[in-house]
Write a structure and sequence with these properties.
The protein has 209 residues and is of the alpha/beta class. It contains six helices and eight strands.
Amino acid sequence: MIERVEFENAGGLLLEGERRRPDGAPRTACVLCHPHPQYGGTMRSLVISALFDALPPAGVDCLRFNFRGVEGSQGSYDEGRGEQRDVVAALDALACDLASSVPIVLVGWSFGADMALATHDPRVAGWIGIALPMRFGSDETRAAVASDQRPKLLVLAQRDEFRAAEFVLDETRAWPATESAVVAGASHFFVGRTDRVVELVGAFFDRLG
């Protein structure tokens, strides 16, 4: 069952989201962060929707949300600065009624991956970046997660049109506790390859909890 949720970020903007819980007690939880707001990205974008459908039956409590200025969320695009505060607000909304023993993962696709990997928070048990462009968020914020010992998964597209998988692999080679997987034949949008993304993400959650 999908629950409609609303929550406020640190700047007082009201953001909209949806939450889908597993049938029993969750073993893990995640915040799903969508692609670029100015290029059609919403919480219902392809990869985010595929994960939102697949993870709860596997025991993962999922919250997806719209960044500021997208559909019913207040505000306007802030070039990745305010959007990082939106991720923290979504994390607050998810964590407030979870047992402290339930690990929370930040999961993002494209722009959302950059926002997730720029969010260094003690409540986060791990990060998943899908087709991360590595263009949004400051080097300083990304460096905090990049040097963190908590687990990270990078899911890359072999034929990514916006950031070559080889570039991301080179840039992240020294990151600790980081696993990378390149999805063969996939473009940045993973059309026809979302099943492989779901498989890789699901395996990460299995290892985590």
